[in-house]
Amino acid sequence: MAYDKFKVLTSTAVPLPIENVDTDQIIPARFLKATERKGFGDNLFRDWRYNQDDSPKEDFVLNNPKYSGKILVGGKNFGSGSSREHAAWSVYDYGFRCVVSSFFADIFKNNCLNIGVLPVQVSPAFLADIFAAIEKDASTELVIDLPAQSITISSTGATESFDINTYKKGNMTNGFDDIDYLLNIKDNIRDFAANTPL
Amino acid sequence: MKKTLFDKVWDSHVVQQVEDGPDILFIDRHMVHEVTSPVAFLGLKNRKIPVMYPERTFATADHNTPTINQHLPVKDPLSANQLKALEKNAAAHGISYWGLGHEKNGIVHVVGPEYGITQPGATIVCGDSHTSTHGAFGAIAFGIGTSEVEMVLSTQCIMQPKPKSMRININGELGKGVTPKDVALYIISRLSTSGATGYFVEYAGDVFTAMSMEGRMTVCNLSIEMGARGGMIAPDEKTFDYIKGREFTPTAAAWDKAKAYWDTLHTDEGASFDKEYHFDASEIEPMITYGTNPGMGMGITNGIPTAEAVEGGEATYKKSLAYMGYNEGEDMIGKPIDFVFLGSCTNGRIEDFRAFAEIIKGRKKADNVTAWLVPGSHKVLAAIKEEGILDELHTAGFELREPGCSACLAMNDDKIPAGKYAVSTSNRNFEGRQGPGSRTLLASPIVAAAAAVTGKVTDPRTLL
Ligand code: SF4
Description:
The structure holds 2 protein chains of 2 kinds. Chain A has one domain: Aconitase, domain 4 (Alpha-Beta Barrel). Chain A contains 8 helices and 7 strands; from the N terminus they run E-H-H-E-H-E-H-E-H-E-E-E-H-H-H. Chain A has helices at 23-26, 46-49, 86-94, 106-115, 124-136, 166-174, 178-183, 186-194, and strands at 8-16, 71-74, 98-101, 118-121, 141-145, 150-153, 159-161. In chain A, a hairpin with a 4-residue loop joins strand 5 and strand 6 (150-153). The radius of gyration of chain A is 18 Å and the shape is globular. Chain B is α/β, with parallel strands linked by helices. Chain B has helices spanning 5-11, 38-47, 77-93, 108-114, 146-155, 180-191, 206-210, 213-221, 237-243, 252-262, 314-324, 344-347, 350-360, 378-386, 389-395, 445-454; strands at residues 14-17, 23-26, 29-32, 57-60, 96-98, 123-126, 140-143, 157-160, 164-171, 199-204, 230-232, 275-280, 287-289, 297-299, 339-342, 370-373, 421-424, 439-442. In chain B, the strands form 5 sheets. Chain B has a 5-stranded parallel beta sheet with strand order 5-4-3-6-7. Chain B has a 4-stranded parallel beta sheet with strand order 11-10-9-12. The longest helix of chain B is centred in the first third of the chain and has 17 residues, at 77-93. Bound molecules: iron/sulfur cluster (SF4). Residues 62-63, 107-109, 128, 130, 344-345, 405, 408-409, 426-427 of chain B line the site of iron/sulfur cluster.
């Protein structure tokens, strides 16, 4: 599925300083019953966000009007657990275009890259700086510059570079996906398949 | 050049490399289930493209299926809709579909090996993270997201950078009552849930050589819980004996050709890994988890570690214990429990039911325990009946349900109620994984059995 091109994103951010946030928290299994990719943002962090009677939990960050923006900042090992792409969809559908953490689980990171959410991995110290800057001032903006591969905290000017492979970077900046690429080499794939032992 | 088992399988499946990008990996077998596939099929429709190799694709229904009265229409309209969608998509694209009620139906990672779809040296993917299970046969098997499901359906390839390699060696002999599940939970507790992120793991050493194929599946299944892309074990005579004669296993000349390839599948002497661990089998005891991720496991006779003793954020650790209603330093032995869940692609095979039966034989289910015993497939269910295990379960006051994922992810009606404690043989103890507010203690089938007959956390060795 094509998505918006990602170049430079300047936005306030929502802080979630919890480690090992797993995809069962991002979107609980009971919300995976759809056959279309629609409306997943409503159930993002469902059980942390709402009580069992569907009233909002006031102490959860998404229910705090102080915080908003297109960037979600999470603790270490973000997105562990189930491979459900629904987790990345719900992050995207809620309105986030970028997730920042000091460490991502593999499949979640891939899923994000495949749907146009940029995972930005920063050092633990820089992550702590981001959380501190947002805590000090919720209107602090982060600047994510994908072509330059840098992330900057605008209030302090602190900046760090991040890694992304050239191919994925090209996809994100152009809004392409892997399938477009693979469909172009179908003949090679067919030749290869004819010679596999299994 | 000296190659690892992983290198051999990976390298032989690379169609081409993208410059400064991922490898394009050819996928031999693609397993599909109802939850992560509908949007992928929708993608094909939007792009107006077919499934490239329907014969390499296998669909089963498991995540969303009820485990009682499977002969009746599925009550939940959303679940029913998802099952219907898979049935329709499979038919439209000429994919074999083992739906609800089909004699071959079961959990995707249980039926793959049962019918010989899983083979050594194959690349296998599925939109489910526990696809790592199939690594037990020396396959490269890993979970993928829905965009990637669409990718494999349409091109039979996936784009992935080659992971780093890790070998985990465990030598020596396991003690009494120590099962493959304990080995896996032990490793995860030592490495943490992110300790193997970015790696593909090979398990090696006496413990894995001696382990049954089903035990190897349990271990490989849990690889993902330490963050690994997957885990694998070199195929040996045990592997070949297991797959021989199954429906999708090659025969005659095709077997000989495949076997010639399989015989090369081992890590060359002197090949190097990016990371290597060595553990001693005698250090492992029956394990149980006390927190809200699979890395929070401990020997069942130990006390819950204190925040200083564990790596990671103290606040996250305390939040986790608060969710469980436990305190640092407490014993797990003797903790009351409410539910027991035997099943899932981790421990829902016949050996797991045999192990469970051995403990409950001559005993009775505790009154305070609700037990959900869910076979991983119809084939497992049939074996439970044939071997007389069903009678033993009934005598002890247990009932058996019908196959499916069930309370492993609680997408169907099998939800552990809020606040209740469940000793589960599944793979994840995340907050609410088994139902909103549920509290999960991961353990082996015999720890589950010991809890089921005593009503509390009990060292199974005292009942053996
Ligand atoms: S049993 Fe659990 S982990 Fe296994 S396939 Fe089903 S939901 Fe996934």
